[in-house]
Amino acid sequence: MNKAKSMKYPSITILSTVKNVRETIDKWMTSLLRQDYPGEYTIVVIDSNSTDGTKERLQEYAKKYPGKIQLIEYESIQPQALNYAIQNGLVKTELVALIDGDCEAPPTWLRTLVDTIMKTGADIVGGPGLTPNGVNFLQKLIGLDLDMRFLRTKRGFVTRHPNMNMLIKKEVLKRVPFDESLKVGYDADFGHRVTQAGYKMFFEPKAYVYHYHRSTLKGYIKQQINYARFLVKFYFKKPHAAKGDNINPPVMLYQPLLFGLSILSAILWFISNNSIFGIVSVGFILAVLILQTIDVIYVIKIKKTPLALLLYPLYMFRLILWVIGGILGILDLVTRRR
C-alpha cells in the first residue's frame, strides 16, 4: 500500500504576510495551489496595503479559489501580521506553514515539511531558501552568498531558521509570539526564545523553496542599510544573538566590527600621523579579507563557479552599507534616549 495513502495527513494552514510582491506573486501563488499534499490545506494571506498591484492580483486569486484562499488587509510589519493571524483565529489548524511572497515552492514542499515534523518529533521544521534559475546577474551573485548559509547547515536540530520557509505547531506561536518591536531579526529572536522554552527546531534540506532575491542594486542597497540599522536595535535589546547562529555565523558578524575598527584606525592615522594606527587599520582589513576568503573558497568548492570570485566586491560593498546602517542605528538609539 502507498505510504502516503495509508498515513493520515493533518489539515494545514499556509500563512503568508506580504507587501508589494507583484513581481513574484504568480510564481508564489501558483506553486502553493499545485502542492501534492495528500491532506487538506488552505491559504491565508495578510497583505499590508500593497501599492504595486499585489492587492488587486490577490483579490483575483481569492475570487477564483473561494474557500481555498483567504485574503486579509492589515497594515503591519511581518511579526505583527503573523501574531495577528494566530491571535484572531485565522489559523484554524494545529499546524501552520509559513512562506514569503517572494518564494516559490516545489510540489513536494508541504508534504516534506509535514513528513519531517511527524517523523522527528520536532515542534518546528524549516528548509532552505535557494536561488532559482533564470534570475538576473545580481540575484545570482547574492544567491551564491545566501545559498551557502543553508547548504553548510547539516540536517538536524538547529536554533534558528528564517520564517520564509517553516512549519510550526500553532501552540508554539500561541506561547511564544514574535516580537513585534523588531522589524528585522525577529526570526533569530524567535529561534532563541522557542529553544529556551524547550521547543525543538529541525532543519530539513529536502524541504526547500526557491527564493527570489533583490533584483535591483537600489533595492539591495536599501535592504542592507535597513537590515544593519535595525540589527543595532536588535542586538542592543537581545545581546545573546550577537554570538551568531546557523544562519548568521560568528565570522560574518565579526566582519562589520573589524571593518568599522579599520575605518576608525585610518581616521586616527590621518589625524595623528602616527603610523601605528595605519598598521592597525591594514591589519583589520586583512582580517576581514581572510574571513571573506574562507567563505569564497567554500562557495567555489560547493558551487564550482568562478562567479564566486565576485563575492569579494559584493562583501566589501555590503560591509560599507552595514557600517552606514549601523551608524544610523546607533543614532536612532541615542536620539530616542534623550
Automatic annotation (TrEMBL):
<dbReference type="InterPro" id="IPR050834">
    <property type="entry name" value="Glycosyltransf_2"/>
</dbReference>
<dbReference type="InterPro" id="IPR029044">
    <property type="entry name" value="Nucleotide-diphossugar_trans"/>
</dbReference>
<feature type="transmembrane region" description="Helical">
    <location>
        <begin position="277"/>
        <end position="300"/>
    </location>
</feature>
<dbReference type="GO" id="GO:0016740">
    <property type="term" value="F:transferase activity"/>
</dbReference>
<keyword id="KW-0808">Transferase</keyword>
<protein>
    <submittedName>
        <fullName>Glycosyltransferase</fullName>
    </submittedName>
</protein>
<keyword id="KW-0472">Membrane</keyword>
<keyword id="KW-1133">Transmembrane helix</keyword>
<keyword id="KW-0812">Transmembrane</keyword>
<dbReference type="Pfam" id="PF13641">
    <property type="entry name" value="Glyco_tranf_2_3"/>
</dbReference>
<feature type="transmembrane region" description="Helical">
    <location>
        <begin position="307"/>
        <end position="331"/>
    </location>
</feature>
<feature type="transmembrane region" description="Helical">
    <location>
        <begin position="251"/>
        <end position="271"/>
    </location>
</feature>
